[in-house]
Design brief:
mainly alpha, globular, 58% helix, 0% strand, single chain, 3 helices
């Protein structure tokens, strides 16, 4: 029997929340490329790894969204 790692449901939920925000508010995502999204997501995860803290997947979509919509990837602490 294969067990699901405990973090995967939280990651899936965070990604769906991010997608839902883009779907519900397309006007806010004008000019944001898929490359921008993946870059900010990677930066957020790397900062959590570097800080040796657990990722707060509940905050993840909001941090990604606010960073992208501000055009600022420097405030990516989760």
């Amino acid at each position: 029997m294969t067990m699901t790692p405990p973090g995967l449901p939280a990651i899936a939920g965070a990604l769906w929340d991010l997608r839902d925000h883009a779907y519900d508010h397309p006007e806010q995502w004008t000019g944001v490329s898929s490359e921008d999204v993946f870059q900010v997501m990677a930066q957020i995860v790397e900062r959590a790894i570097d800080a040796e803290v657990d990722m707060d997947w509940i905050k993840f979509p909001g941090v990604v969204t606010s960073s992208l919509l501000r055009g600022d990837s420097t405030d990516t602490q989760v």
